[in-house]
Amino acid sequence: MAELTETMDQAVKAMKEQEGKYLTFSMADEEYGIGILKIKEIIGMMTITSVPRTPAFVKGVINLRGQVIPVVDLRLRFGMEEIDYTDRTCIIVVEIRGDAGAVTIGIVVDSVSEVLNIKADEIEQTPTFGTRLNTDYILGMAKMEGGVKILLDIDKVLSAEEVAELDKAA
Question: 132: domain CATH number?
Answer without folding.
Answer: 2.40.50.180
